[in-house]
Amino acid sequence: MKGNTKRKWLLGLYIFTVLSAVFSSVAYAAGDPMSAVNNLSNFIFGLIRAIGMIILGFGVVQVGLSFKSHDPSQRANGFLTLAGGIIITFTKEILNIITG
């Protein structure tokens, strides 16, 4: 296989795996609709938390590099990325606090 074809095939396999995991977790609780919704909600919030952790790590690296290069604009962007990563990581907890 060529590189581009192989990459598309692996992307399709990854998408299929993720979608099958989502739908199997929803179908697993077929007896109780609320448990299916809760399972899907937990899965989605888990994905959001993972993305937030990646952004948080990127913000830490950006702040560290800004201190090394003495670049104030990069430092400001790093702290904004860091704050955004914290907010995205703790989205579920923030929503629980807001809704009571």
Automatic annotation (TrEMBL):
UniProt keyword terms in alphabetical order: Membrane, Signal, Transmembrane, Transmembrane helix
Transmembrane segments: 45-67, 79-98
Signal peptide positions on this chain: 1-29
The protein's name: Glutamyl-tRNA amidotransferase
Taxonomic source organism: Paenibacillus silvae
UniProt lineage: Bacteria, Bacillati, Bacillota, Bacilli, Bacillales
